[in-house]
Amino acid sequence: MVKAIQIGLGAWGFSWSKEVIPNVPSIEMVGYVDTSPEAQQRVQTELGIDPKLCYASLEDAAQRAGAVLAICTLRTEAHYPVVKRCLELGLHVLVEKPFTTTIAQGKELVALAKAQNKLLMVSQNYRHQPAPIAAAKLVASGKFGPLSMVSIDFRRHGPSQGYRYWDMPDPLLADMSIHHFDLMRYVLGDEAKRLSARTWNPPGSPFQFDPTGVVTIEFAKGTMVTYRASWMSSQPVTPWAGEWVMDGAEGTISWTSRDHFRDKRGPEKLALRPLDGEVEPVALDAIQFPDRTGTLSTIARVIETGEIPVGFSSGEDNLGSLALVQASILSASRGGDWVEVAEVIG
After folding, report:
1. Where does the Gfo/Idh/MocA-like oxidoreductase N-terminal domain start and stop, copy by copy (predicted)?
2. 138, part of any domain
3. Per-residue pLDDT tens for 103-138?
């Protein structure tokens, strides 16, 4: 059992407290931290958490609770100072994405985690689903040969689906697309070289900043990715992980993941089509700990065994995903000019 404290009990943090943490048996909760008495009261009242496990101070929780892991589920701008303090206090850290707002902050936290000999993991929960896991294995095995082009579509209509962060800067590229950017790197097993991005705000949109965009990304092995995404689409919605079509020299791999809008069970789909052949649906293996439970169970297992699994979304690895966010925002600000990823990651 890994003793853990959770920091941040707001709306999303409460979702972790209620829906994620209780479903990972290798985690023993020894503390819940939030400066808001109302947030503390909510977990006590609605989840039956012992008031003695609730703290207003991170330092008090770290000193008194006996935890080895901090689960950081705060707003993005609070990630850097809180994760830094957790590492300084000698805790392993699992933090929501994006784990920092700048590359410089991310590099600082990665260096600090190494200096402290502690794990820093980013909760890239979309990696922990059957379809992308299977797709990554197929690509790694060379199924259908080298990939020349990948097309990804993400479509949602925020106003009719309860989206409420109308004044969030870069609501697409910074808030949503990091999931898709991270999946690109994970599934392709490759790093992006450069990209071109255009974003815009459609007529009648309640968003203050651009919720719609198109990004073209060139990867190191030569794969070109075309990514079209919108929070203001009037077309049929896609699963949360998007609709993927991956063109290889000898055939096509297509898949979707996290279809929570249509079915709360989140069905996963993957199909193969050999060159000039018929589409062949692939039966996907069930996984014991999907989505956010997957990130939490993974870091618990690494703490207990010391073995780092394939696809582990460490802070260091996640710098590549954060760089794609920063590069796409920079390119969009330059009217779609090509931006070298090295320019932002250094």
Report:
1. 7-123
2. yes
3. 999 999 999 999 999 999 999 999 999 999 999 999
Six token digits for residue 246: 């991956």
| Structural domain of 233 | 126-286+322-340
Report how far residue 122's alpha carbon sits from residue 320's, in angstroms, rounded to the nearest whole number.
Answer: 12
Which domain CATH number covers 182?
A: 3.30.360.10
Report the 10 Å Cβ neighbour count for 151: 16
The number of beta carbons lying within 10 Å of the beta carbon of residue 290 is: 19
Identify whether residues 330 and 255 lie together within a single domain.
Answer: yes
Q: What is the pLDDT of residues 11-59, one digit of tens each?
A: 999 999 999 999 999 999 999 999 999 999 999 999 999 999 999 999 9
Task: Report how far apart, in Å, the C-alpha atoms of 221 and of each of 187, 188, 190, 193, 218 are.
Answer: 13, 9, 7, 9, 9
Q: How many domains does the chain have?
A: 2
Pair 295, 94: CB distance under 8 Å: yes
Domain closes at, from 97, 122, 147: 122
